[in-house]
């Protein structure tokens, strides 16, 4: 064991200084990349639109108007400037519905990932650090979860529990954690052998404290990168659930549900399924771009 | 039998029991499945259904019975079709597997050459184009891609049928749709597996001794990138089947996915359980086969 690594364990705050510097370097690396900045800007506008939805939408998303049904987008010959992206089969404004739909997508995406992170990181830490029987049990559960196509499991359980916003968030959260468990476990296994952990242990620092104070912070960048990318996945999963008819209910518009309804009218009104899909594409792409550059910026190996 | 095979078989058994437990839990997730299935039925009718489903027994007894029956392919009768659920799933399995295999082939035909080229010419315009396309592909919801293809090829140009599975023309759109989901994934795996080996010493040695560039790639690099490629692809098989389920729904392909989605909407639990269980079994078998293959191809693991 290298004696040189002892001080960092003896003085836990000594490593704060270099970490802060590497953090700002990572930020500069991120900001220099034009696609990442573009992604961040798209994401920022989607988030603000979702937050401000009730005040910025031109129409109420639920108001029907049979005389205005199937109004094409504004640039089409029969378009109406009051309905920039057209109206659906019962005359509801598509733009307003898309803006409101952003709320569901972002809410589900973020909250499902929060649950997955809490479950997956905890189990990954235990699995990697405690090892032995706990590791065997947790990794078997990971293997079992991994054996199901996630969307299928989510579909079955949301239907069985009764579709609602809360159910969708819980089910996506509890079916999507095994990736975090795997990644965190692998990192802990590598960290466990590191000198500074051994040093802390030799100095009599308790296991829980080592885990929380020394191991966990070193897995943060992986968790941040993985979570960002998983928000994109959760948004796609939510859209798929809504599309298949077991989403967060019928009362509030969601992008997946709009596409499902639009599918039935695809031969008469192409704009019905097209625009909600573009909204998903833009949001997910933006998150993926940000997440990918975050990986490049935070990963010291690159 | 070598020890690692025995160990792996034991693990396989545990995973199968675990998969059964999760499948079993689908019916019981709501607490009272009968209330969910027949919300307005009189209590007498509910009691009959409870009796048929054996819901009066303690859960462990029910679970043991479920596992015993599941392993012999008995999931009970479909509430909707009124015939055994298992044959309904098995009948449709070839369609799902064909769709998956066809789109895998198509995706590989694109991902393999483009991925290799991308890795070799890392950072050049072609690579950036490929990486950008991967990003785009991975951000598109597969059901939306399907509808957009229908919009273009069926509605606009009237070239291909909107749905079905009865002709090669009908097979084309679902296959391409699922490939747009699969190909970006495979391309990324091919590219990164190639990048991992391309910088290694023996590749440099081969280059240094004057072996032509494409021979280096084909003979030395690709051969060694193949193992991680197969492994990672196998690990993603569950994801691919999930994509197939959604694609089948969009194009009304008569496969297991469409059957399950339909059954879920009707709360036809025996069919849902049989379908989910069988698809999970396919993923489990694929992972098991890949594990053995990996050990077979890589003697280092066998010794450990």
Number of strands of chain B: 0
The largest interface is: A-B, 46 and 49 residues
Which descriptor suits the 3D outline of chain B?
flat
Beta-strand proportion of chain A: under 5%
**Structural class label of chain A:** mainly alpha
Order of helices and strands of chain A: HHHHHHHHHHHHH
Sketch the major β-sheet of chain B.
Answer: none
Give the helix level of chain B as a range of percent: over 70%
Radius of gyration of chain A: 23 Å
From the alpha-carbon coordinates, what is the Rg of chain B to the nearest angstrom?
Answer: 24 Å
Strand content of chain B: under 5%
Mean pLDDT of chain A: 86
Overall 3D form of chain A: elongated
- Quickly count the helices of chain A: 13
What is the mean pLDDT of chain B?
Answer: 88
Order of helices and strands of chain B: HHHHHHHHHHHHHH
Helix content of chain A: over 70%
Low-confidence region ranges of chain A: 1-20
Oligomer: heterodimer
Question: How would you characterize this protein structure?
Answer:
- The complex is a heterodimer of chains A (302) and B (304).
- Chain A has 302 residues and is mostly helical.
- Chain A has 13 helices and no strands.
- In chain A, α3 (34-51) crosses α13 and α11 runs antiparallel to α13 (271-298).
- Chain B contains 14 helices and no strands.
- In chain B, α6 (125-139) packs across α8.
- Classes of the chains: A mainly alpha (302), B mainly alpha (304).
- The interface between A and B is large, with 46 and 49 residues.
